[in-house]
Amino acid sequence: MYFIGITGGVGAGKSTVLTLLKENFNCKVLLADEVAAQLMTPGHQCFDRVVALGWPESILDAQGQIDRPKMARFMFEDNDLRQQVNSIVHPAVEAEVLNQVEYERRRHNIEYFFFEAALLIECGYGKLVDEMWYVFATVEIREKRLMESRGYSKERIANMIACQRSDESFRANCDFVIDNSGSPQETLEQLRKYIKSKGD
């Protein structure tokens, strides 16, 4: 079983690539955001520690769950809080992912385990995965997608892209580049060709 990390900038279409992988290959797909969200629910290991940090006001909603948009807003405004949350959540996510990878290795039921995270490189997953894949799309395509799907302004998109790792840096740290600027069918052909080359 190959353990493969998938990353890329905002608007590159990582979700599309993950859907294509799920639908066409014998694999499991796991998203860092979903693992983190689960670990921050009541009764799970990150909940109490995150809630106890020095937030400007409570980050719990009326149901006693963490209000993630509110938490994200506070983290965006306070670099110290962001670092504290990351120091709690990132190691817990890594441990959970590795547990699931080991479980799947023992079962021998799948050929690929794909793990998607925006900060895959920053969190050091290059040392843990068998390969890193980078989902690329041109800036123009990313702008168009984000304006249509999320209603973002060009200025907001430009700021988001500027805050992320450069295309050159993604390429330097990854083993395979998926050009997702075209149609899903074109992307699928790239995936099929590359995965076939791994088996040859």
From TrEMBL:
PANTHER family: BIFUNCTIONAL COENZYME A SYNTHASE-RELATED, DEPHOSPHO-COA KINASE-RELATED. It is found in: Cytoplasm. This is Dephospho-CoA kinase. InterPro entries: Depp_CoAkinase, P-loop_NTPase. Its EC number is 2.7.1.24. Catalyzes the phosphorylation of the 3'-hydroxyl group of dephosphocoenzyme A to form coenzyme A. Pfam families: CoaE (PF01121). CDD domains: DPCK. One of its GO terms (molecular function) is ATP binding. GO terms for cellular component: cytoplasm. Keywords: ATP-binding, Coenzyme A biosynthesis, Cytoplasm, Kinase, Nucleotide-binding, Transferase. ATP binds at residues 11-16. Transmembrane segments: none annotated. It catalyses: 3'-dephospho-CoA + ATP = ADP + CoA + H(+). Pathway: Cofactor biosynthesis; coenzyme A biosynthesis; CoA from (R)-pantothenate: step 5/5. Belongs to the CoaE family. One of its GO terms (biological process) is coenzyme A biosynthetic process. The lineage of its organism: Bacteria, Bacillati, Bacillota, Clostridia, Lachnospirales. Its main location: cytoplasm.
